[in-house]
Structures are given as structure tokens and as C-alpha cells.
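for the recovery benchmark. C-alpha cells below, seq after
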């Protein structure tokens, strides 16, 4: 009885030593393997990793300047927000470019072009939601600043109670201890 599912033996994964399919007529990446500094897997736009870290570093510096109370523990959220912000900018720029070059406004959302950009639009929505969560965690939204204010007010109230309990009622609103 013949085997219905033949087993394929792995063959060579290279064209051979005489390959001339690579740049300049040399060995291709399949034959020579990926060499240091290659750019074969480089992506562009919102999914690019090239240049992402440099741009994200600059954005992170600007974020640190506006975080109400920053500490080393905030670095993960700051760097996350910076990376997501760069991706949002790139995705929005790509979508804007397609919108501006489309013959009709609807063309960017239907047909082949629309289908091509569906994933990018979905990712953009997710990145926007993620950026809002990072911003909220860092106290960069009105709601989170209000919560932070309430937390600070609660903290001051607890501190006032502690000072009063420890040092007596000789405390005024300004937080200064006065002689009885």
C-alpha cells in the first residue's frame, strides 16, 4: 500500500557555492545567512523599529518634564508611553498620507486600499487606548490629576492627624508648629 502522506527529506537551504543572487553578484542571504548590519527585515512606518528608540527617547524626555510627580518607578510607564506615542504619530501620518492622495475620501476606506489599512487603523485605535492608560497612570489626564490631588489631600490629612497626635494641637493651617 502506497504512503498517502509522503515524507519530504529536507534539502539544501542554499542555492549553492555558485550563487550570484546577492547584492553585487555575491551569495544571497539564503546562501550566506544574515550578515551583521543587514536591513532585510527592516520595517518602515508605524511598525518600524529603526529609529524608534531614538525618537522615543526624545519623547520620553518631554514626558518627564510634564509628569506631576516623577520617580524612578515611573520609567516603565514613561518609556511605554513614549514608544506608543511614536507609533501613533507614524500610523497617523501614514493614514493621513493615504487620505490626502486618495482620489475620493471614501477610497481610503474601501476596496484594496481600505483593506490594506484596516490593520493599521485597528492598531492605531489600540495604541491610542494604551497611551491613555499610560497617561492616566502618570497623572497626565484631568481625571488622574484629580485623583492625585485627592490622594495628596488624603495624605496631608493623615499627616496632619499624625502631627497633631504626636505634637499636640499646636499646628496651624500652614503646617507650622506654634508655641502654646
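predicted aa per position
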Amino acid at each position: 500500500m502506497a504512503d498517502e502522506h509522503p515524507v519530504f527529506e529536507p534539502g539544501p537551504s542554499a542555492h549553492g557555492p555558485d550563487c550570484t543572487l546577492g547584492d553585487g553578484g555575491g551569495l544571497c542571504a539564503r546562501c550566506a545567512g544574515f550578515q551583521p548590519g543587514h536591513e532585510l527585515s527592516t520595517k518602515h512606518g508605524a511598525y518600524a523599529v529603526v529609529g524608534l528608540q531614538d525618537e522615543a527617547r526624545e519623547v520620553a524626555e518631554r514626558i518627564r518634564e510634564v509628569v506631576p510627580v516623577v520617580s524612578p518607578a515611573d520609567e516603565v510607564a514613561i518609556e511605554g508611553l513614549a514608544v506608543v506615542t511614536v507609533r501613533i504619530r507614524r500610523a497617523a501620518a501614514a493614514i493621513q498620507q493615504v487620505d490626502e492622495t486618495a482620489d475620493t475620501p471614501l477610497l481610503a476606506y474601501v476596496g484594496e486600499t481600505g483593506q490594506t489599512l484596516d490593520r493599521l487603523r485597528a492598531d492605531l485605535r489600540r495604541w491610542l487606548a494604551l497611551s491613555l492608560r499610560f497617561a492616566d497612570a502618570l497623572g497626565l489626564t484631568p481625571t488622574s490629576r484629580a485623583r492625585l490631588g485627592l490622594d495628596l489631600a488624603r495624605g496631608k490629612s493623615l499627616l496632619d492627624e499624625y502631627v497633631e497626635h504626636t505634637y499636640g494641637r499646636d499646628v496651624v493651617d500652614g503646617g507650622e508648629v506654634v508655641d502654646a
